[in-house]
Amino acid sequence: EFESASAPFVVGSGGDQESVATELSQYDASKHSPVFYGHMVAKIPVDTSVIDDFKPEHSHPAFLGHAVVHKFIRPLSPPTSSTIPLPDPKTCSPIEYLEHYIFPVLLPGMFELLKAAKAEKCFERKWTKFNACDFLTEWLFNRNPKRSDEEFTQFFEIPFVKSWLVIYPRAPIALSLLLSDEEAAIIIQSFWRGYQVRCMPEVHELREWQKELREEKEGYSKKISEFWTKQACKVGVDMETDTPEEFTGVFLGNLEERMESEKEMKADDKLSLKLDFCLQI
């Protein structure tokens, strides 16, 4: 009964009947515990008490002094492709075409795809940089029998991929997905250390002083530009009202020559020139 319920053995592998050390006995409810049903059990002779080391959370009390024996089943070798004639791809049914031409090539790639997805932690995170279609395309392209003698080609170096991306470019991947855990940890830790330093009273006071200094410089340049605007307006009004040259000469001076020279000067020279002119006025 046990032999009929067990998996078939390969011919020549040696069953229970061929082993001289195996004693078979049919299951009998009056002699055996129901726990033994469906198992191969061997009685182990021991010199000490079997109750001393017994742990009920690991085994059933009926197995005291016995051990469960498992059969070694030699795996059946799958039929080779040479033994099965392939159907004609042009006349066969869609199911036959999938089973004989698509799945033998695609299934190994899917297996490698799952391994790569696990390595990229796709089953642990919601968003990752891993693209399953890109990986499968690269894997199938490099394992093409027609390219057996060529070197490995990256996904973005494949010819048809390059031509496709020229027409339909992709958006850049977010930096948070490109960084590894170690690189992201370094960036977060450096930001946190900088934040703690900026919260120190001495550093905070220095930053406030630098902010006021920048605002003061910006306000100073704004005042100078407003002054020059007012002077230009005054010059236009004085020319229309025929103001005496003695009054307007103070403001005009060599204004045209100064403006031409200012174009050739640097920013620092322009600022100093404006300051000198303001002091003269």
UniProtKB/TrEMBL annotation:
Q: State the InterPro entries in the record.
A: IQ_motif_EF-hand-BS, IQCK
UniProt-listed Pfam families: IQ
Instruction: Please give the coiled-coil regions recorded for this protein.
Output: none
Q: Which domain of life is it from?
A: Eukaryota
Q: Which PANTHER family match?
A: IQ DOMAIN-CONTAINING PROTEIN K (PTHR34927)
What is the protein name stated in its UniProt record?
IQ domain-containing protein K
